[in-house]
Each structure stands twice: as structure tokens, then as C-alpha cells.
Structure prediction request, 169 residues.
Amino acid sequence: MDLKSFIRDVPDFPKPGILFRDISPLLADKNAWRSTVKEMAQLISRHRPDMLAGIESRGFLVTAPLALELGCGFMMVRKHGKLPGGTIPHTYALEYGTDTIEIQADAIRKGQRVVVLDDLLATGGTLAAAINLLRKAGADVQAAVCIIELTALAGRQRLDVPFESLLKY
Prediction:
């Protein structure tokens, strides 16, 4: 199945000069979405994860069905202040300033094998930060996987784990 045909290009979103790759049509088509989940499950299964970590917010859409498909847990990596209870934060540098992501303090057990997921890899900053956060919490991060990779932005170079994507632009 040509999954790229289900990705919509939205020019000048969220600001002028950006070409946004919208996965909404992919999610809306049951056959394309089923194919996406199956293909991603094949990429992830070789890493034998105990847990999948999804990055807010479109990463949640990808991670939840994959956790069910692979029979493993699903944990959320969220922006600061969005998770209840005790959390483990990680602050990282952006082009202009910083941002903080966090996980719940009891979301992971030391040594659990984790694969990190998001819908898209651009510059790699958030994905690299999530990997560092999970390691700080004791995870054994095995890999990162996304539906889409924007190769011109070289985000994979910021990652120190194996990275795979289904679609490259």
C-alpha cells in the first residue's frame, strides 16, 4: 500500500514557510491505518520492548494501537504540568530557549526495554530529549520509530539509538 498517498501536505502551517505533513487522512482510512500499524509493529518487534513510550500528542495515536498489537505497555511522554502525581522532568534546549518534558515517576521500572515513538521526526530535539529522560528514569532504550522522517533536517543524527521510519520526505 502506498502510505504516502494518505499524507496531506499543508503549506504554511503552523507558520509561513513550513510544509506540515498531516497524518489525519492516514488515520481516517481503516486499511491504511491498519497497514501502518502492522508495518510499524514489524519494525518494533525485533527490539523486544517491554514498554512503548509515546511522545505528546500525535505520538500517542501511534503508540496506543502498537502497544496492543505487540502486547506491551504504553507510557506517555508529556509537556511539563500535564501528568498527575509525581513526575520525572527533563529540560532540554530549543533553538530559542528551553522546554521540559516529563513522565510519571512510576511509569517505568529500572532496566525495562523501551522503544520511543512519535508520528514524525524533524530536527530530533524532542525525540532525543525523550530518550534522555527515559534513561534518567532507568529505562533501557532500544530504539526510536516514527511514521515520517524529514530527512533534510537530519534529526536521526541527534539520536544515539537505532531509528526507523516508514516514510521519508
Remarks:
- DSSP finds four helices and nine strands in the chain.
- The beta strands are 8-11, 19-22, 51-55, 73-79, 87-94, 97-104, 113-121, 140-149, 163-168.
- Residues 48-168 form a domain with the Rossmann fold fold (CATH 3.40.50.2020).
